[in-house]
Amino acid sequence: MKLTTLFITLLLIACTSKEDIVPTTITGKWAPTYITQTRQADGTFDTWHRINTFAPLPVYEFTSDGRFLKDGKSGASCCLSGSRYNISGNSITFTETLNCPNVDCKPCLNWKVDAIKGDTLILDECFTRNKYTRLK
Question: Domain 21-134: which CATH class?
Answer without folding.
Answer: mainly beta
